[in-house]
Amino acid sequence: MVGVVKMYQKEYERWMAADLEDPDLKPELSKIEGNDDEIKERFAVALKFGTAGLRGVLGAGTNRMNIYVVRQATQGLANWVKTQGGTQTVAISYDSRIKSDVFAKTAAGVLAANGIKVRIYDALMPVPALSFATRYYNCNAGVMVTASHNPAKYNGYKAYGPDGCQMTDDAAAVVYEEIQKTDVLTGAKYMSFAQGVEEGLIRFVGDDCKRALYDAIESRQVRPGLCKTAGLKLVYSPLNGSGLMPVTQVLKDIGITDITIVPDQEYPNGYFTTCSYPNPEIFAALEQGLNLAKETGADLMLATDPDADRVGIAMKCPDGSYELVSGNEVGVLLLDYICAGRIEKGTMPEKPVAVKSIVSTPLADAVAAKYGVELRNVLTGFKWIGDQIAQLEAAGEVDRFIFGFEESYGYLAGPYVRDKDAVIGSMLICEMAAYYRSIGSSLKQRMEEIYAEYGRYLNKVDSFEFPGLSGMDKMSGIMQGLRDNPLSEIAGYKVTSVTDYQKPEETGLPAANVLIYKLDNNATVIVRPSGTEPKIKIYYTTLGKDLAEAESEKEKLAEALKPIMA
Length: 566
Hints:
Number of strands: 21
Largest sheet: 6 strands, mixed
Strand order of the largest sheet: 1-5-4-2-3-6
Radius of gyration: 24 Å
CATH architecture of the largest domain: 3-Layer(aba) Sandwich
Distance between the termini: 29 Å
Helix content: 40-55%
Shape: globular
Strand content: 15-25%
Number of helices: 20
CATH class of the largest domain: Alpha Beta
CATH topology of the largest domain: Alpha-D-Glucose-1,6-Bisphosphate, Chain A, domain 3
Number of domains: 3
């Protein structure tokens, strides 16, 4: 063990002795001098680069997000790009998080120093804009600087492949290997952003690309022109992130003008002072918007996360109250709306395809079947939905794709980008709400009609956190235990089938650490470790004659599984 101690202590001393360019890093290092735990926490391991790129707490050290870790990661990416031929170009965008702009320019400087051309947005823009620019400029890769919906102390770096999807496992493995060969402080080639611009290697994304994105989104309206006369009242919060410009632009373009923006959450602010966790899945993030919706009597309240790839909503109910709508419910509402609307308008393609993740609600399967739509189930991670679009594209059938969603508030309704897109999500949700308003109905009413038709499905997720260096070991021990000692019943209900996604030969999908249990009361339980955070998530789908019955079934199952997670 002595050797390990020496290693992280040595690395700490090397950073202390180095002439660090970021003035925030040295004071932090001086502060932890002699504190073995703190030094170990920052230097014993390096942030792991995977298919979701990097994500970590801001600060000094190899296990933190800082300019040196970004340079090292980008050098790894540059080494991979150089082997790829093509345009030798990388697109870059960033959100409002602390140091996002600095990290984006740092990444651009490393790429330029490696002779790779860069297209970077001149101001913060969301994930879909990055995915679009990567495709628009035929880039080899894309980089989005964001930690998505994590708390303010985090930042991250998502890497994209040439198709605008998050990077494949194989490409990420090569980049990771190259990163490991690159010394974090001295190994990356680097030139200043200004020099990269002067030498013509770094160029800004043009207005033509921005407009083309908006046009691509707006072309996916189901009922074009409807919003101009429907009189929808909207409250919107970009949660101090990158959604403000693109979302309001698209909504105005399609005719939604009565938009009240939540004042304290309007402008970019990486400290997220109004809610510590800027995630539209949780109540606290939507609270200010909800209060404003009640004041203004809005039909709908909408919030996008900082990198605007997720959107959460609250809908107005007939009694004037507001109800948060889950990602599963919005996914089902949108699928139902797109199918019914496109059949009515005669714009439904032959043999339409929708795609969802395996952890999203089985209610979508029932809705798709009603409209004659093929619903494909894929692994969690939007790149797998992107992969289905790519397969259709390769077969010359990209028009068959009508909609894809994940329960974690991610939606896409066109092939122009290959990641979840809160801009098109916001547009279609508003159009759908405007349509139901125009026929004297509402989102709430339509949801109740769907439940009356198919049964009362309830989808809930419980998360269990396993922090610290030992957390990962604990998580893998739990998953292994479930495989070694398979559950035959949960809360007295018999397990009728277990699908282990680590066995691709049985699922027909790539291997993934997911277990799905089907029970004899028609419930489904899914156990899955998060790919981005030290959490195990358990997804429940229960079915009841009404909400109360479905909820009590879920509680029974959750109580029975709690001890396993202890």
